[in-house]
Design brief:
- A hairpin with a 2-residue loop joins strand 1 and strand 2 (102-103).
- The protein is an all-alpha fold.
- Helix 3 (51-60) packs antiparallel against helix 4 (67-88) and helix 11 packs parallel to helix 16 (285-296).
- The chain has a single domain (9-296), classed as Farnesyl Diphosphate Synthase, CATH 1.10.600.10.
- It has helices at residues 7-25, 34-44, 51-60, 67-88, 105-108, 111-131, 138-152, 157-166, 174-184, 186-198, 205-232, 235-238, 244-247, 253-257, 259-275, 285-296, and strands at residues 98-99, 102-103.
């Protein structure tokens, strides 16, 4: 019996698998319209920690999912995430010039191209979800497409971004912040875990609820840590502009509760996320390790 690979090796293998899938899914740069396809690949490939696909892989282990199917589901979620970053960085949104350690898409190309990149990536994600066989039951796969659509739309990520834009210059309470980030950041993270789970055999309603709770809580923790790092880390370390939230007057967990309390809150969320996995035993090892990575990361 071989030993279980350590987390770093497991994560690196998952990241490589998803990167290879993304390379194949994205239109080749020489296919017309060449500039749009080049910009799409620029926005998606060669950057990011691929946390969302890793969550899909980890959740898929609970349902015995085929890793090839999970890689496609995780890639679809990552494509949605990449589109959201391209639009988030536009001058009409956060007006940022640095993402994943390189110029943002609209800086490297231009604003109209960046806008179209986001549009095309969103469409591509749903093409991936519907074009490939991710579950033997077609009704389950249809539900997967619905879940990703809800997580991406006005009841999820896009709605959270709208709340975020409206909150600039305002003071939000912690519950108001939580409502915003459960949508803006958390919805896609929850979708990643649930889609990975649904690539495998059916699980009980109780187990499904526990995975969904884990993903909801760890998604919130992800945002809390992001807010902390925006204050605590440099642009070189983050790969994006540090201190941008404070500069733009955006409400954050740090502005709402202070740096020390925000760090403590992230740890409380990590403990809560771990508690939701207690019934899975060693099968949830990778989810636990991801929770540690998300909360304890320094970059």
């Amino acid at each position: 019996m071989t030993s279980t690979p350590d987390f770093q090796a497991w994560a690196a293998a998952g990241q490589s698998r998803v990167e290879a899938v993304l390379q194949k899914l994205l239109p080749a740069p020489e296919i017309a319209p060449e500039r749009l396809h080049q910009a799409m690949r620029y926005a998606v490939l060669g950057g990011g920690k691929r946390v969302r696909p890793l969550l899909a892989f980890a959740a898929g282990e609970l349902s015995g999912a085929d890793p090839e199917r999970v890689a496609l589901a995780g890639a679809a979620v990552e494509i949605i995430h990449a589109y959201s970053l391209v639009h988030d960085d536009l001058p009409c949104m956060d007006d940022d010039v640095l993402r994943r350690g390189k110029p943002t898409c609209h800086v490297e190309f231009d604003e109209p191209t960046a806008l179209l990149v986001g549009d095309a990536l969103q469409s591509l994600a749903f093409q991936v979800i519907t074009e490939h066989k991710l579950n033997d039951d077609a009704s389950v796969q249809l539900e997967m497409a619905r879940l990703l659509a809800v997580a991406s739309g006005s009841r999820g990520m896009a709605g959270g971004q709208a709340i975020d834009l409206a909150a600039v210059g305002k003071v939000l309470t912690v519950p108001e912040l939580e409502f915003m980030h459960v949508h803006k950041t958390g919805a896609i993270i929850r979708a990643a875990a649930v889609l990975g789970l649904k690539c495998g055999a059916p699980v009980s309603a109780v187990d499904y609820a526990h995975v969904d709770t884990f993903a909801k809580v760890i998604g919130l923790a992800f945002q809390v840590v992001d807010d902390v790092l925006d204050v605590d880390a440099s642009s070189a370390t983050l790969g994006k502009t540090a201190g941008k939230d404070a500069e733009q007057g955006k409400p954050t967990y740090v502005s709402a509760m202070g740096l020390a309390r925000a760090k403590a809150f992230a740890e409380e969320l990590r403990v809560e996320a771990m508690r939701s996995l207690e019934g899975f035993g060693e099968r949830a090892l990778r989810l636990r390790q991801l929770a540690d990575f998300i909360v304890l990361r320094k970059f």
